[in-house]
Amino acid sequence: MRLIDLQQAIAWLVRRAGLHGPTRSPAAAFSAALGALLALLILLAAMPPAHAQNTPVATKATALIIESAPLGEVIIHPQRELAASVMARNESKLSAEVSGVVLRWTAEAGSAVNKGQVLVDIDPVDFRLAVAQAQAAVDASLARFRQAEQQHQRSQALVAQGFFSQEAQVERATEVALKRSELASNRAQLAVAQRQLAKATLRAPFAGSVVERLAQAGEAVAPGSVLYVLAETGAAEVSASIAPADVAGLRRATDLVFETRGQNYPLRLLRVGSTVSAPARTQEVRLAFVATDATQPPPVPVGSDGRLLWSDPQPYLPAPLLVRRGEAIGVFVERGKVARFVVLPDAQEGRAAAVELPLATRVVVRGQATLQDGAAIR
User: Fold this and answer.
1) Cβ(315)–Cβ(297) under 8 Å?
2) How far apart are CA 89 and CA 96, in angstroms?
């Protein structure tokens, strides 16, 4: 109410009370004055405060106080792990290639052997006899071949003197060719006999350790009978089974290690299997120890079990920074003086979520629970 309105109201109350009218008795005048005073007091109480005249109807929303940090300072790289084991690149079952009786074996299970070392001797008597027989056949063939050559040379001289016909000369040349072929055949038989004799001795095809010995002295063996199981000591590999979804991250990882008995050994990726196993739906991966060559034993024994560890190169946001808005889960980022909600499509409540934002993006790390998209922040 304006000041002029208040003055008009007071004048009306005075006239109503009759203070400027005809002369009244003191009692009547007092009663009229008292009523006018009460009415004035009621009117003043109903008036709004003077400063309320300048207050707008609606006020601007108060900016919310939050705390933000660059994405690069809050992201994490979760550590992945797989059960893994050290395997020999070659683990061979060494079998007998000839029939015979085992005379002796030279290496027990757990023994280290060198390449070419004798492991088993099979009775060689029959094979030596076969070699001697083949050698005799070669000697006889060689003698006949030489005789045929000499006869052919004499026939050539007689033909030149006119004492030998051309047809007989051709027969002598044919005889030489037949004796030469016979000699070659017998020499091949000798090579086969010598090869069988060599097979009577089983040798280590590579340096390794004996996993299992099955040879027994005095036992008759046949071709294909397993006598030894030998594991190569050099160039061991680490084997693990991985889900196809994790293969891409494993390929990009730069901190692969094999952890066993509290020790970590750096690894490098060799290959990833191209097929997925039917029961477990996994792929086999093979890795090699770093700073070792194929001739040196691995830093841990073949057969050791452990874990394959690496840090996922994909950046993730910690679960406490994520919020749900409607059906979506995401994170609030600071853009100027406004908070914006960024949806993370594969995010799940209570779990870290992969993020593809620039590392310089400022992420709200405190006060995000009460934010709404587009809210003013400071």
Assistant:
1) no
2) 22
Using an 8 Å Cβ cutoff, are 333 and 317 in contact?
Answer: no
| Bridge partner list, 155 | none
Residues in contact with 200: Cβ distance below 8 Å, sequence separation at least 6, in sequence order:
98, 100, 121, 122, 123, 124, 127
CB atoms closer than 10 angstroms to residue 22: 5
Inter-CA distances, 201 with 11, 95, 324, Å = 139, 11, 74
Residues in contact with 334: Cβ distance below 8 Å, sequence separation at least 6, in sequence order: 66, 68, 340, 362, 363, 364, 377
As given in the structure block, the two tokens for residue 180 are: 């030469």
Average confidence (pLDDT) over 267-288: 91
What integer pLDDT is reported at residue 54 of this predicted model? Answer: 42
Token pair 């004048």 is at which residue? 11
Full DSSP string of 347-362: --TTS-EE--S-TTPE
Measured distance between the N- and C-terminal CA atoms of the chain, rounded to whole angstroms: 40
d(CA 169, CA 153): 9
Q: Is the dihedral of CA 181, 182, 183, 185 positive or negative?
A: positive
Per-residue b or e along 121-160, where b marks 16 or more CB atoms closer than 10 Å to that residue's CB: bbbbebbeebbeebbebbeebeebbeebbeebeebeeeee
Report which of residues 10 and 102 the model is more confident about.
102
The residue type of 242 is I
Residues 51 and 59: their CA atoms lie apart, in Å, by 16
User: 3-class SS at 249?
Assistant: helix
Joined tokens for residue 26: 């003191």
Tens of pLDDT, residue by residue over 16-69, are: 555 444 444 555 555 555 565 565 566 555 555 544 444 333 334 577 888 999
CA distance 371 to 290: 50
- H or E stretch at 228: strand 226-232
- Helical axes 125-161 vs 166-199, angle rounded to 10°: 160
For 228, the token pair is 């030894």
